[in-house]
């Protein structure tokens, strides 16, 4: 019965287990360590001969509930919650890559993911080739004998390019590579990469999953074997584990994910259409618009186009800056997926880890603005944009 529930029901119920007091909402287990009856029992728990919580870096009941819920939502065997989205990206990649290995990744990714791959991995002898994932042939050409994994986001932060997940998964399988997808912009309610053959999914849970702008966290989903490696080989020793309190807040946020996403998407669709017809706008990037390269995958790979829209104004960088500075309802802030509508300038903010050349090559222009549509009334959002255009 539970297996058949729709995802809108699973966001509320999946992963919940009966507790001592019959509390409807699972109690927050805010404890760093767990006690043993005897030294022998402690030793058996460490040796894996007895089940039991030991120390929160190794596992925690509140964290475990979030992990069970996310595994159900993504359709994975298991999940690991992490201290941030970057901890999830690095845990997923470091589980699969060692010195001398090679990674093929999309050249347009979140700025810190770019920095991790191009700066940190270099220090540890992990090679990375960045290509445009719009053409699967580009990925195939970049594969070498020592390639171990493929990595991308789709839709991409910040300009929302969309990549064909079935084609990427098939290519990975042909070459026995691990395919890893960052599903932050979609959440499992709009896109389920594992159902298309992708091996691992990661999230910045900071965004839609939590949805209230008060937590930094991440999730990795995959097979039991992969997630055990993530937990025992990376999280245990490198230590990027989630705080139980943050896991508890995400469990609360997830209950409303379906209803929140509906509003985020409605608002984004309306704003994208408004911007597209505006004479001061040069170009709108939103997979829900007919002219967008990802439009063909809408309905097939993605249920809806999400709550983020990017656009370029006619004019210079100063025009874009002045426009953003005039907005009143929109807050100038990075992050996305919050109740509040946010605007940011990728070139100087989220994607500043790129060199100007690498950024232009990835299609992230100087005048690009990215907005995350919040949960406000769309009339107020449009009115705010209109007054900024008129000023
Ligand atoms: N993956 C994607 C697609 C992201 O957008 C981000 C953060 C991360 C991973 C990293 O997650 P975090 O560690 O921040 O939880 N994106 C941000 C953004 O666009 N603005 O601020 C952060």
List the helices and strands and how they pair.
Elements: H1 7-13, H2 39-47, H3 61-74, E1 78-82, H4 85-96, E2 102-106, H5 111-123, E3 127-131, H6 136-142, E4 147-153, H7 165-174, E5 178-182, E6 200-204, E7 218-222, H8 224-238, H9 244-254, H10 257-276, E8 281-285, E9 308-313, H11 317-326, E10 331-332, E11 342-344, H12 356-361, E12 368-372, H13 378-390
Parallel strand pairs: 2-3, 2-4, 4-5, 5-6, 10-11
Antiparallel strand pairs: 1-7, 6-7, 8-9, 9-12, 11-12
Can you tag this structure with a few keywords?
seven-stranded mixed beta sheet; 391 residues; Aspartate Aminotransferase, domain 1; 2 domains; Aspartate Aminotransferase, domain 2; alpha/beta; binds ligand LCS; 13 helices; five-stranded mixed beta sheet
Low-confidence stretches: none
Query: What's the CATH H-level homologous superfamily of the largest domain?
Result: Type I PLP-dependent aspartate aminotransferase-like (Major domain)
What bound compounds does this protein have? ligand LCS
Shape: globular
- Kindly state the number of beta strands: 12
Kindly report the average pLDDT value.
97
Helix/strand order: HHHEHEHEHEHEEEHHHEEHEEHEH
Share of β-strand residues: 5-15%
Estimate nothing, just give the exact number of structural domains: 2
Proper CATH architecture of the largest domain: 3-Layer(aba) Sandwich
Strand order of the largest sheet: 1-7-6-5-4-2-3
CATH fold-level topology of the largest domain: Aspartate Aminotransferase, domain 2
- Helix tally equals 13
Give the CATH level 1 class of the largest domain: Alpha Beta
| Major beta sheet summary | 7 strands, mixed
Radius of gyration: 21 Å
Give the structural class. Answer: alpha/beta
């Amino acid at each position: 019965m539970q297996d058949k529930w729709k995802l809108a029901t699973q966001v509320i119920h999946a992963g919940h287990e009966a507790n001592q007091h019959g509390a409807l909402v699972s109690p927050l287990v805010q404890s760093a360590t767990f006690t043993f009856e005897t030294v022998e029992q402690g030793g058996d728990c460490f040796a894996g001969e007895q089940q039991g919580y030991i120390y929160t870096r190794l596992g925690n009941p509140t964290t475990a509930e979030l992990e069970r819920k996310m595994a159900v939502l993504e359709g994975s065997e298991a999940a690991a919650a992490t201290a941030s989205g970057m901890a999830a990206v690095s845990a997923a990649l470091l589980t699969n890559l060692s010195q001398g290995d090679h990674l093929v990744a999309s050249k347009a990714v979140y700025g810190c993911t770019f920095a991790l791959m191009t700066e940190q991995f270099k220090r540890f002898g992990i090679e990375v080739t960045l290509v445009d994932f719009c053409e699967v042939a580009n990925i195939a050409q970049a594969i070498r004998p020592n390639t171990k994994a493929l990595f991308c986001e789709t839709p991409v932060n910040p300009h929302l390019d969309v990549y064909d997940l079935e084609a990427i998964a098939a290519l990975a399988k042909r070459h026995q590579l691990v395919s890893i997808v960052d599903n932050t912009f979609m959440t499992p309610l709009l896109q389920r990469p594992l159902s298309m053959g992708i091996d691992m999914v990661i999230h910045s849970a900071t965004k839609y999953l939590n949805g209230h702008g008060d937590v930094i966290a991440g999730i990795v989903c995959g097979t039991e074997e992969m997630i055990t490696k993530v937990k025992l080989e990376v999280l245990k020793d490198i230590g990027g584990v989630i705080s139980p309190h943050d896991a508890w807040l995400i469990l609360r946020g997830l209950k409303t994910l379906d209803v929140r996403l509906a509003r985020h998407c409605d608002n984004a669709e309306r704003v994208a259409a408004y911007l597209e017809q505006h004479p001061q706008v040069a170009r709108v990037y939103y997979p829900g618009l007919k002219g967008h390269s990802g439009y063909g995958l809408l309905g097939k790979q993605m249920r809806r186009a999400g709550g983020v829209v990017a656009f370029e104004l006619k004019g210079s960088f100063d025009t874009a800056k002045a426009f953003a500075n005039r907005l009143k309802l929109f807050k100038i802030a990075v992050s996305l997926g919050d109740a509040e509508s946010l605007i940011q300038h990728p070139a100087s903010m989220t994607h500043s880890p790129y060199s100007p050349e690498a950024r232009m090559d990835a299609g992230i222009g100087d005048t690009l603005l990215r907005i995350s549509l919040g949960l406000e009334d769309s009339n107020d959002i449009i009115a705010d944009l209109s007054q900024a255009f008129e000023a």
